[in-house]
Structures are given as structure tokens and as C-alpha cells.
Amino acid sequence: MDYQQLLHDVMETARRAPARGRPADYIPALAEANPESFGMALATMDGEVYGAGDWEQPFSIQSVSKLFTLALALAEGGDDLWHRVGREPSGNPFNSLVQLETEAGIPRNPFINAGALVVTDRLLELTGDAAGAVREFLRAESGNATIGTDDTVAASEARSGHRNAALAHFIASYGNLRNPVDSVLAHYYAHCATAASCRDLALAGRFLARHGLRADGSRLLTRSEAKRINAVLLTCGTYDAAGEFAYRVGLPGKSGVGGGVLAVLPGRGAVCVWSPGLDAAGNSVLGVAALDALTTVTGWSVF
Ligand code: DON
């Protein structure tokens, strides 16, 4: 199959979507993103990577980083994490506070902000540098040593991050953080503010298609752990739009408010799409439309 042509075609189809959405503006540095930016990359099992549009342009990966923090925390620390965070869809926006009190400080899943803060805390406990662990993993898997935190974006979120600070303190009040709140928030903002391209993320997401094997052939996760992460991505990776994403795209996937979506093609590879215009749930409008077109044309959905 001509993957290059395939990507061009599905992007053309996506451009026919009736709406474009708007870049996130609650993190002021992200509001400046160009809603016309649009790129897509597909990395195959053997490490070939194909791209179209702005596929090599770095963007703010935001919540896509949560896929990597979860994988690294499970790889380093095993199943103990699941005592501190659940794995059910929340049915609420990614930054919601409402379930935390009734559920005694145990976040519903690792991808809503509350859950990601607990995962970041766990990774910090295990490695001493949660943001650094994510950065090094992305560099190694993509072969791109320039990947790192955009400090302007991290600082912008830190200044406006009242909700995340509230979530972190609330979780800490239930004894579910091991590190000081300020350190957890700093590492969380730093890994969310990682700048990487569709090319980089498609390559870095391959380990989930390869049942836990890294680019160099070493094992990050057991086959069963990789399956479980894919399952949580499918049910929780796009927040309260996860049902719609499964319906339209039918792949495990993780979105971010920078406009990136990374999806796993089990047994085939990984695909990343980026366009900053978001829908009401915080998912890229063109990104979801392109993945919808991709699985419609190829039949590569997991269903
Ligand atoms: O904590 C936040 O709000 C951002 N750093 C990440 C949120 C995000 O990307 C949600 N995804 N769609």
C-alpha cells in the first residue's frame, strides 16, 4: 500500500469536515497556535515512517504525554499503581473535580488530569525525574534528541493552572500523593509541555502496537500490560468523547489540547495526527476526522 498517498487522501477527506474547532485558550501560550496547521504520520512495525502536511513540525503534546507516563510508571513500578488510580471512563471533562470527593481521592482513570497527577507522582517516586523519564523515552523511541519541554508553555500553564493545583491538593488531602504538590505539578506541566512532532510521536507509540517491545527490541511492558494500556486508551483516552471516538475511529488513542492525537494500530504500527482546532471535549476536530477517514478507508479499526 502507498502509505504516503493514503495519508494525503485521508487528510483531504478530513478537510471537508464542516467545523474546525478552536485552539485551547485556557493555557495562554497554546491560544497562539495556527488552526490551519495539520499534519499526520504513520510509523510501521519495522520503524518506517510516512508523513503528510505538517508532520515534522513540533507541537505541544499535552495529554498525549499521559500515555507515556502511564507506560513508564507501570514498567518501573508494576500493578501497585492501580491501588491509587482507577481504570473506568469518567464521563466528565478531563479537568473535572466532581468525582474526587465521593471517590475519596482515587481518580477514575490515568488520563483525566487527576489520574495523570497521581501517575506523575508515582513516576517521580520511581525515577526521581518524571518529566525527564518521558523526555528520554521519546528521544530514544523517535531517534530525535532535540525533543524536550517548551519552557514557555510549561510556565504559561503553571501561571494559569489553578484547577490542576486544586486537584493535586485535593488528592494530597486524601494521602494519595507521595511527593510535594509543587514538585508533582512542575513535572506534570513539564511533560505536558513537551514539544514533539507527529513523526516523533508515531514512532514513540509503536511499542503499544508491538505488544510492549521498544524500538531497540528490548521489552518495556509485558504483552498483557500493553493490552491493558490499549484497553484504557480505548475507553478513557479521549475523555467524555471516548464513546464517540470508539464509534468513529475504533482505535486505542490519546488526545491532547495541543491538538495532537496518537492512535495505536495493533500489529501494524502507530499513527499521529495534529491540528490545533479542538471540539468541546478538547479533542482535535481535524485529527479525529482524519483518523475516522483512515479506519474507514483501510478497515484498520480494532473492531
Ligand atoms: O492539565 C491540562 O489541562 C493540560 N496540561 C493537559 C490537558 C489535555 O491535554 C487534555 N486533552 N485533551
From TrEMBL:
Keyword line: Acetylation, Hydrolase
Acetylation found in the keyword field: yes
Enzyme class at the top of the EC tree: hydrolase
Binding site for substrate: 63, 113, 157, 164, 188, 239, 257
One Pfam family linked to the record: Glutaminase
Domain of life assignment: Bacteria
Recorded catalytic activity of this chain's protein: L-glutamine + H2O = L-glutamate + NH4(+)
Listed EC numbers: 3.5.1.2
Stored HAMAP family: Glutaminase
Oligomer and partners: Homotetramer.
Family: Belongs to the glutaminase family.
Protein name: Glutaminase
